[in-house]
Structures are given as structure tokens and as C-alpha cells.
Amino acid sequence: MSSDERSTDPEHTVVTTIVPALREDKKQAREGCLVIIYGAELGRRIPLNSESILIGRSSKCDVQIEQESVSRTHLRIQRLGGNYIATDLGSTNGTYINDVKIVGDVILRDGDQIKVGQTIFKFISGDNIESAYYEEIYNVMTTDGLTGLHNKRFFDEALEREIQRSKRYERIFSLLLFDVDHFKRINDTYGHLAGDAVLRQLGSLLRARVRKTDVPARIGGEEFAVLVPEVPLSGAFSMAEKLRKSVEENCFSFESQRIPVTISIGVAEWNPKVRSGEELIATADQKLYEAKRRGRNQVVV
Known about the structure:
This protein is of the alpha+beta class. Helices cover 31% and strands 29% of the residues. The protein has helices at residues 129-142, 152-169, 183-190, 192-209, 233-249, 277-293, and strands at 14-16, 32-38, 45-47, 52-56, 63-64, 75-80, 83-88, 95-97, 100-107, 113-116, 119-125, 173-180, 215-218, 223-229, 253-254, 257-258, 263-270, 299-300. The model is unreliable at 17-28 (pLDDT under 50).
């Protein structure tokens, strides 16, 4: 593979060889930084000013991550001319860039997501890095870094707005509440990195299945919600059933190993008898519990 190529197949590792042509004049180098978008110290900015930084569990690393899944010296990022190069240092659990396990040296590109253990960094570079950083901070405040869905804070605000809108214009809306069946078993069987991969892939699937007006969010560990404006209970049930079936039929995988995944969904509808968002969520949660009690992998309204 040439120095400017990168595999797009998620089942293959990325191997990039650094060649002399990359050694540009440092005057042309573009500044870069890392931003933690998932994990402890959310939103922390790590300038890439020095020639090289080390990331790992050791206190001697420039960026210390105290997680069992992180090796003592896990990853090196070094500046080479106008490029930043990521190198996995033989870590036990590997380094992933955009969900692909890397081998050898990899040229980082603006927007790349780097996963070390259960921490995700976003690489930012460019002429207006300050603007890009503050834009990313806004995303950190409203988006779940692992799945790319809205986070609970955004969901809670969106729910309140939808309630006020419904009261004002006498409109209905529905709520889908679901989680991954036996998610602990997935983590125990395949490992936490595989569990994270499942959640990320589920987030991508969910974004592809909802309308632009819907609000999909991750509101807990393996818990998700979708606000569905202008849709009654019957329509929300149909949507939930299609989503359930899509998840059941989807090929979830981690490092070429297929992982069977199903979800259970509870559905509730906002109407004048519902007194608050908390009550709506509680109703959907009761339906979700009932779906699990009946054997999981089903929808209950």
C-alpha cells in the first residue's frame, strides 16, 4: 500500500509506510491537536507542538490513560514535516483509527478518530485550528463521542422543546426507548472493545433508519431513545418494528468476528393525559421492561 493510501475495509488493518517524500519543510507544517471526545477528561485539548508524544498507562507518558485495556506505552504520535504520524507501540489491545486496527505507521488526516482503550481522540489540523477546536467542543457538549448520536443532555432539551410545542399546537409525538439485549454477555464474551464497536455500529444503523426530524440519542451505557415528532403510537410501533428487524439482520462485527445483536423496544405516545417528560419516559421504560420479560428482541407498546 502506498504512503497516501488507506484501507476502507473495516475488517482489515491499516498499514502505511512512511517514505522520504513526506519530509516537507517544517515551515509548511500545519498545526495539529487532539481532543478527547469520549472518555475521561472529555473535551481536553492536547496540542501537538513537540516532535513526539506518547500515550499510555505509564505516568511517564505525555498523555496518561489509566485503563486496564491501555498498555503502558501504547501509542506514539510524531510530527514529520507537514504530517502527523500515529504508531502503535505493540500494545496488547491495539490502536484503532476510524474503527480500523492499525499496524505500522499511519498518516493522520483531519477529523480522524483515534481509539486507545476506551478513550477516543479526534485529530484536528488546519489553518484555523482554534475555530475547529471550539466547534468540536460544541459537538462534545451535544454529541455522544462513541456512537455519533445526540447525547442525553441534548435529548433532555429536545424532549422539553417537543412537549412545549405539542402543548401549544396540540400535536402528538412518540418516544422509542430501547437497549441492547444481553449487552453484558457481549462484553464478557468478546471484550469491551468489541462492545464499544457494537454500540458504534448500532449508532450508524440508527442514524440511517430515522427521519431528519427525529431525534436519536444515546442516553445511557447501552440505552437509546428516539423522539418521533408528529407520529402516533401505531406509526411509532411500525417504525420500532422495522428498527428491531434491521438490528437483528445487521452484521455486527469486531476484527472479522461476527457478533449477533438484538434489541428490545418500548414505545409510548405523548398525549394530554401525560403530565411530564419524566412520566413519558417512565411509560416507555415500563414497556421496554415488558419486552424483556417476554423474552427480548421484540417491541411492546
